[in-house]
């Protein structure tokens, strides 16, 4: 069965929390200043809604959650959003699922009316960075002033 992308629901929360924390630790995103430490990770479904111009989506296959990613306003901006908490379990990598998920998120961002999409990540996530580059993200010399994750060392943005 082909993987499908669906909006996160409360029954996905536990699996996504596990994936975000496990994959975050795998790449050194541990502690304050990194997405896996954000309080929202415990209950992702409660923190994203279309009415807030945000959405978090999971990719699943045969009922198994393989990863997720989301879009939310960046620092209250109506034109700039942030690609947030894109994490894939090891068995989902290298199969095109990351590309499918990020493309879905970017299309959602366009539908919400955003003009730019920002992200921050770690240099250790080289596979993700290569994907972001292929999807049109360009490197920034420094983070935007309002970034929440001061532990990250790669900052990127694309025009939508």
TrEMBL record:
Organism of provenance: Vibrio tritonius
CDD domains: NAT_SF
Lineage of producing organism: Bacteria, Pseudomonadati, Pseudomonadota, Gammaproteobacteria, Vibrionales
A Pfam family recorded for this sequence: Acetyltransf_1
Top-level lineage group: Bacteria
Domain N-acetyltransferase: 3-160
Name of protein: GNAT family N-acetyltransferase
InterPro entries linked to this entry: Acetyltransferase_Enz, Acyl_CoA_acyltransferase, GNAT_dom
């Amino acid at each position: 069965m082909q993987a499908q992308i669906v909006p996160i629901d409360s029954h996905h929360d536990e699996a996504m929390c596990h994936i975000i924390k496990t994959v975050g630790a795998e790449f050194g995103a541990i502690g304050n200043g990194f997405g896996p430490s954000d309080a929202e990770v415990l209950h992702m479904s409660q923190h994203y809604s279309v009415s807030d111009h945000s959405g978090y989506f999971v990719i699943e296959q045969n009922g198994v959650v393989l990863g997720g990613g989301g879009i939310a306003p960046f620092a209250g901006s109506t034109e700039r959003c942030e690609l947030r908490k894109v994490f894939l379990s090891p068995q989902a990598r290298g199969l095109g699922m990351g590309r499918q998920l990020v493309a879905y998120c970017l299309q959602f961002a366009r539908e919400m009316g955003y003009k730019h999409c920002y992200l921050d990540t770690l240099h250790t996530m080289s596979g993700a960075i290569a994907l972001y580059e292929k999807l049109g993200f360009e490197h920034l010399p420094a983070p935007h002033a309002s970034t929440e994750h001061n532990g990250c060392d790669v900052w990127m943005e694309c025009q939508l």
